Amino acid sequence: MAATKICPASELISAGKKVVSIDGVEVGIFHLQGEFYAWHNRCPHQGGPVCQGRMFNLVEEVVDENRCSHGRRFNDERLNIVCPWHGTEFDIKTGKSTGAQRWMLRPAKVFVEEGQVILDV
Questions:
Q1: Which among 96, 62, 64, 105 is positioned nearest to 78, based on CA atoms?
Q2: How much of the chain exceeds pLDDT 70, in percent?
Q3: Please, is 116 exposed, middle or buried when counting C-beta atoms within 10 Å of its C-beta (0-12, 13-18, 19+)?
Q4: In contact, 120 and 22? CB cutoff 8 Å
Q5: Quick one: three-class SS letters along the chain?
Q6: In the chain, is it the N or the C terminus that has fewer CB atoms within a 10 Å radius of its CB?
Q7: pTM value?
Q8: pLDDT digits (tens, 9 = 90+) for 26-38
């Protein structure tokens, strides 16, 4: 397939994400910390529409040197997409599952050209 113009980059920067369908192929495009990422909208767990899920910061357990838990906190550097079917989480930057490391989202090529987000699937 040829590269397809999706929208102005400024539109996606404001929204954070956009799910599009090109010739029957659904892809989620994300803007995070100045970069664009694109993943096929199919969860490797059970085929759910992963890119339509909510985005949440990674939750980390705070553990001291004695291995005692002091609660949880959000990691402001890592944002995950959560599949709406079963809650499987994936790192938006890497596509890797935060639980089952064998699961990974399928990437799509995304870039900005002359202020437009371009997708090549």
A1: 96
A2: 99
A3: middle
A4: no
A5: CCCEEEEEHHHHHHHCEEEEEECCEEEEEEEECCEEEEEECCCCCCCCCHHHCEEEEEEEEEECCCCCEEEEEEEEEEEEEECCCCCCEEECCCCEECCCCCCECCECEEEEECCEEEEEC
A6: N
A7: 0.85
A8: 999 999 989 999 9
